[in-house]
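Researcher: Please predict.
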Amino acid sequence: MNRFEGKVAIVTGAGAGIGAAAARLLAAEGARVAVFDIDQTAGEGIATELGHEKSVFEAVDVAEPHLFAEAIDRVFERFGRLDIVVNNAGTGSFGRTPDLPIEEWTRIMAIDVNSIFFSSRAAIPHLARQGGSIVNVASISGLGGDFCLPAYNAAKGAVINYTRSLAVGHAADGIRVNAVCPGLTRTPGTEMMKQVPDLWSRWLDAIPLKRPAETKEIAEVIAFLASDAASFVTGAVVVADGGQMAWTGQPDASAAFQR
């Protein structure tokens, strides 16, 4: 498939995890991809893997609005167009509200929420030239509450509703805006959860499919939303969590009814 032949995409947080998988898939299907990441070594590694004739790396701190906007403008100047923006960069922080430093709350909001405003503000004028797509990577943590993740929950909830606002506000510009909400996904960040006794198995028990997503599976959802196959989809929030949010959390009582 060459769903993205002739298209230009930006992927933030593309040095690893879901972002790297999205960059690989978009490039494999014909897009020229700008790899944005604060980690220069990781980001350059992905850009090199994709091939410098169809990829470029930008060392970007997505929480810095002016530098972020300048990087987006450079991508447009290099490739002459911009069609897809995948706002994937994000981070989390553990701690109950009374124990969470104000600086940490501010940091999470800057990376997870403000960055999407900065990105959209800079990219929309370019996307509007021919129409385009923005895909924001939120989380099921934006659809419900978690233990000790107040800043992350608030940030991802904001991403979801900001996605809807962007979709409504820029449909007339030919720009579609959607969000994907992954559940547990196998990334370097989640792999370390295996170090906590029983946590990984309890997490899998909460997922009807009984496994984490692979990053390519989430990338496939991103690619669908960015593609012409989703031409009438905007303002959507697509959950990719193995059924976790569909479950009430009550135990399987089927044995009680089989007597």
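Model: The chain has a mean pLDDT of 95.
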